[in-house]
Structures are given as C-alpha cells and as structure tokens.
TrEMBL record:
The UniProt record lists the keyword Cell membrane: yes
The protein's name in its UniProt record: ABC transporter ATP-binding protein
Domain ABC transporter: 2-249
Keyword entries, A-Z: ATP-binding, Cell membrane, Membrane, Nucleotide-binding, Transport
Amino acid sequence: MLEITDVSKTFFAGTVNERKALQQVSLTLAPGEFATVIGSNGAGKSTLLNITAGKMRPDVGRVVIDGEDVTALADHQRAAYIGRVFQDPMAGSAPEMTIEENLAIAYGRGQRRGLRLGVSRAKREVFRQELASLELGLENRLRTKVGLLSGGQRQALSLLMATFSEPKILLLDEHTAALDPQRAALVSKLTAEAVERHHLTTLMVTHNMDQALRLGSRLIMMHEGRVVVDIAGEAKQRATVADLLGAFESVKGELDDRTLLQ
C-alpha cells in the first residue's frame, strides 16, 4: 500500500547548517499494516511523514501509494489517499465550525466539490453513529463549536475525521504527546480500534517507547535519517523497552534526556 524507495532529504544544503534529514530511506507497508516509528530528536521521523503526506518533496527517491507514484503531488493532491492527525489537538479541525460541519468536510475528502447542502439528515445520522464509537457523548453535541471542546475531545474528533473516509494511508504524528496521561490512553485506545475496524495502513511517529511497543504490528527505529531497527510479528511482541534502549545505545552511543524520561 505504501512504498518509499531510496528517499533522501537535505535541509540547507551547501551551508554550515546543512542537515541530512533522510538518507536513502526505503520502507514498504502492506495493506492494513500498522507501523510505529521511534527515534531521537532529528532522527528524520517527522520528515518521513511530511514527505509521505506531500508536505515536502524528497531530493531523490519515490513515494508510491497503492501502486500510484505520488512523488510529484502536493499535499492537497494526495488528500484522497491520506488521513493525518497532528500533535497539536488544535491543528486537525476548524474551531469556529461545529462538530457536524467539521465532519462534513472530512466526509467529502477526495470527492468533487460543488454547491450542495453540507450537512443533510442522512449525513447527520452517519455522524451520530461514528461519534458514538468514541464514547465521549459528542453524538449529542453535533451543533457545538469545536473550539469549545477539550484537547482530548478535539484529538479524538481529529482521529475520527482522519479515518472517516477510510484513507489509503493514515499518518499519526505524535498525536497523543500533547494530552494528559488519561486522555492519551483514551486516544491510543481509539486509534487501535479505528485502525483495526477500517483495516487502515498506518504510520505512527511517537517518542513514547511503551506506546510504540503496545500499538501496531511493526516497530521501526530511526537514527540520523536512516532506519536502524525494523521488527515485526513475534519479535515485536517479545520486545521490551529495555531492548529498545539497548538498540538505541548501540547505534547512538548515548541517549538524550527526553528518550530516557519517556
């Protein structure tokens, strides 16, 4: 479903600030595969997501989604293929619009736009059913402005909006990092349920090693723009945080404070 082939990306090339964010990274995800990506700051995780989403273009390499080469397509041109949830709960929805209006926009992702009613009675019933799966009572607040919701509620709504149209690829960019532990656990649970229910091919970036081990069927570790560890199946199920710390130490030499604290 996703093929990233020999992708490289360098920022500020030819200057004293030159940084190689990605170095000949190749990655293939099968349909329905859920991969978590970990690594220290500057490892290239977010750059990988941005290139997959079309927010950035690689210097070299190809991105193929479901057999179609999308390397040259901008992010809005890939909207029909990709759903994304950002770290900031405020980034995935429009605060001045109601819950049902936000959902209506997500519902039409990838479809032709025209002059028609944005929220119909039939759509409103679909929205209620989908919101009920969040178990947050939002199905009874369809006309509430999204800006009045808590961070956890907005992130849960953003997740629903990103998975609503069953995209080819779901990208999760540290989407629980800004939440308190209770809300983070809820959104993690909803994530696992949504991915399984819709059989979504998913790439999730996280700094939390425990979360990376609990979620998904595959774990990828990046360091200095390269994939240094890639485990799946029973090997991932058996892996522990201590194993990951050991692997990190072997490729990095010493760990940064954020990784140790997580």
